[in-house]
Specification:
The complex is a heterodimer. By secondary structure, chain A is an all-alpha fold. Chain A has a domain at 50-270. In chain A, 71% of the residues lie in helices and 1% in strands. A two-stranded antiparallel ribbon of chain A has the order 1-2. Chain B is mostly helical. Chain B has a single domain, classed as Orthogonal Bundle (ABC transporter involved in vitamin B12 uptake, BtuC), CATH 1.10.3470. Helices cover 75% and strands 0% of the residues of chain B. The two termini of chain B are 15 Å apart. Classes of the chains: A mainly alpha, B mainly alpha. Chains A and B meet through α6, α12 and α14 of A and α7, α13 and α15 of B.
Chain lengths: 349, 345
């Protein structure tokens, strides 16, 4: 493959390939069914996508630090449940929002502490909390009917209107901007990348690896809590299995956005673009009358495609890097990227 | 051997606890006995013959899955698709029976499907370089989607010939003995034999302990990893055949949640998520322990909706114990080495 250097550099920038693909997919769907880009349709599908986009960003932050969080989906479901529970018990909107976010925070803290204090595999801890949160929501829905809430202001969290745009958009946009700023412009954010690339080296350089890792799980829990609040606000009623399988879509979105599962590469806006890509595919399939169950297959294929594409781009970037270095004093050794990082579940003792 | 002062000071209790912590299989056995004793005092019904019989019978599907999972864990991987694969294989058997194939061919079709899914997982991991849990998570989504589309959300029925009641253990084979018990025993013997006495088994442990080390000793790491996933796919197929017989219909969500039970049983039985450690006997005891815990909370009258929380909690406790065990056995090894070198600990 002989890509021009500029093109290969642009493509290897995190988020650019997925943004191009997203535009292409939107254009294709618009050609197939002209109702795709009507304001109502767009508002609907972005409204549906926002909670999962929040989860995608949370998972992306954990993955950039070299971890994984499988619990985000059911934690978001449980947060939606506790939010509704607070409202049903007569709490005002702001208390309910706090309760929902706090639920996410508790699970994030639990995950992070189990992983950092006891040194347990992150994957297995979050698999266990996935089940615990899902089970708690089932129990909660059996105890309290989580619907029929008319607390003023609650549905305005998503459906309200500010400058002609639904409030849900504003909330999500502010959170995304904060996260992007946090990841790129703060010391803590840069440390997340550092421990994702090489935890050992980061440790030697004076980074408290465990504290940063704990921070990423807390962030992911907080975002799951926020996603749960928005879910509750949009749906107005919470069912027992809300959030089941969302972790799958969130991870797929992050991977599609070019967040490397080996850790150390990715950005918030790229993850959002990846999540939007999945939401667009879902909406496009739905508008064209495809059975929604096909979406789970599409998501599975997207994960595989995302990882394969990521590897190709890396090799491409490495190739152009080597070409530039040719003739220099010491050309870099042909490192086989990914191989060592991607084997196993990514846990080291 | 010379006894140092620290060993003299060690009480019997200390030594017993250390021994239990170092050998995970002994540890899970102790846990099982503890649960049984606890149950015997609070709920005499628990130790009833028929209750214990039902308990073991109920644990068989998870047991077979856990044995397959143990092989994958030993080789350093993890198989999240095992539950969905089980459901898919159950669907294949049921559909093959409905299609008019003889029982033998229907069972073979399920096994072929299991091996195919295992091969798919192996190829995703070794050829495309996906991390194990991502590849098998993608396979989970893919396989469950295929099953939903294929069945259109309606459970498959009408395949229950009399022989299938025997396969599912609903009609006992001879006396109290059911066919699933025999099958579980056979699977245990085969997988235990492979792990303990064959070159392939040694390779599983070698690859799980250190991929680089195994590769440098001439082990074909990728092929061994692929074989581990085929083994777990086959185990899922066997479990799926039993499940199809036991459940008498195959809904699309038949396998939901079984992967976490299989992982929990294997981990309770001492399999390490970091690879290179695990036992078939441990998986068997782990599955029975899990079934005993679920049985106990059912007997106490806790609604079944709490089951997910309990299984999740048990998994956390098991990994925690596993981790402590690893730390303690490391310390014991260190102490032994110090004694051998004559350094007072």
């Amino acid at each position: 493959m002989n890509f021009p250097r500029a093109a290969s550099r642009a493509l290897s920038t995190s988020g650019v390939p997925i943004a191009i693909a997203l535009v292409l997919v939107v254009v294709i769907f618009q050609i197939i069914s002209p109702v795709f880009l009507t304001p109502g349709s767009v508002r609907d599908y972005i409204n549906n996508a926002i909670p999962i986009l929040l989860l995608t960003v949370g998972v992306a932050i954990v993955i950039v630090a070299g971890g994984i969080d499988l619990s985000v989906g059911t934690v978001a479901g449980l947060s939606a449940g506790t939010t509704m529970w607070a409202l049903v018990s007569g709490a005002p909107t702001w208390t309910a929002v706090l309760v929902g976010v706090a639920t996410g925070l508790v699970f994030g803290l639990f995950n992070g502490l189990m992983i950092t204090v006891f040194g347990i595999n992150d994957f297995i801890v979050t698999l266990a909390t996935l089940n615990i949160a899902g089970g708690l929501l089932i129990v909660l829905t059996e105890q309290v009917p989580l619907q029929g809430v008319t607390t003023p202001g609650f549905s305005d969290l998503v459906y309200g209107n500010f400058l002609g745009v639904p409030t849900g958009f504003w909330i999500a946009a502010v959170i995304f901007a904060l996260m992007q700023f946090f990841l790129i412009r703060t010391v803590f954010g840069r440390r997340i990348f550092a421990i994702g690339i090489a935890p050992g080296a980061a440790n030697v350089a004076g980074v408290n690896v465990n504290r940063v890792r704990l921070g990423t799980f807390v962030l992911s829990g907080l975002l799951a809590g926020a996603a749960g609040v928005l879910l509750a606000s949009r749906l107005g009623a919470v069912q027992a299995f809300l959030g089941n399988g969302y972790e799958f879509i969130a991870i797929a979105g992050a991977v599609l956005g070019g967040v490397s599962l080996a850790g150390g590469r990715g950005s918030v806006w790229a993850a959002v673009a990846g999540g939007l890509m999945l939401a667009t595919l879902q909406q496009g399939l739905r508008l064209n009358g495809v059975d929604p169950v096909y979406f789970s297959i599409v998501t599975g294929l997207c994960i595989v495609a995302g990882v394969v594409f990521d590897r190709r781009i890396q090799q491409l970037a490495l190739g152009s890097f080597r070409k530039r270095a040719k003739g220099g004093p010491t050309p870099p050794a042909p490192v086989k990227l990914q191989e060592t990082h991607l084997l196993g579940t990514g846990k080291q003792d | 051997m010379e006894t140092t002062s620290s060993q003299k000071n060690q009480t019997i209790v200390d030594r017993v606890v250390t021994r239990l912590l170092v050998d995970p299989t002994l540890g899970v056995l102790a846990l099982l006995v503890l649960i049984c004793l606890l149950a015997a005092f609070t709920l005499p019904v628990f130790l009833n013959g028929s209750n214990l019989y039902n308990l073991v019978n109920n644990s068989l599907v998870v047991m077979i899955l856990a044995m397959g999972m143990t092989v994958v864990l030993v080789s350093g991987g993890i198989d999240l698709s095992i539950g969905t694969t089980m459901a898919l294989c159950a669907g294949v058997t049921a559909a093959a029976m409905n299609f008019g194939l003889p029982l033998f061919a229907a069972l073979l079709a399920a096994l072929a499907m299991g091996a195919l899914v295992g091969l798919g997982n192996g190829l995703l991991i070794t050829r495309l370089g996906l991390p194990d849990f991502i590849a098998t998570l993608a396979m989970l989504g893919f396989a469950s989607g295929v099953l939903y589309i294929w069945t259109k959300g309606v459970p498959i029925i009408g395949y229950m010939v009399p022989e299938f009641y025997i396969v599912g253990g609903l009609t006992p084979l001879a006396g109290p003995l059911t066919l699933p018990m025999v099958i579980a025993l056979l699977v245990a013997l085969v997988l235990g034999g492979i792990l303990g006495f064959t070159r392939l088994g040694t390779h599983f442990f070698a690859v799980g302990s250190s991929k680089t080390g195994a590769m440098q000793s001439g082990v074909r790491v990728e092929r061994v990893r692929m074989q581990a996933y085929i083994v777990s796919g086959l185990a899922a197929a066997v479990a799926g055949i039993i499940m199809a017989g036991r459940n008498t219909n195959v809904p699309a969500d038949l396998g939901n949640g079984y992967e976490i039970q299989a992982i929990a049983a294997a981990v309770i039985g001492g399999a390490a998520l970091s690879g290179g450690r695990g036992r078939i006997l441990g998986a068997i005891l782990g599955a029975i322990t899990l079934a005993a815990a679920v049985n106990l909370i059912n007997l106490v009258g806790v609604p079944s909706s709490y089951q997910k929380i309990v299984i999740g909690g048990i998994l956390v406790a098991a990994v925690l114990a596993n981790r402590i065990s690893a730390v303690v056995s490391g310390k014991v090894r260190q102490r032994k080495a110090m004694v051998l070198e004559g350094i007072p600990a």
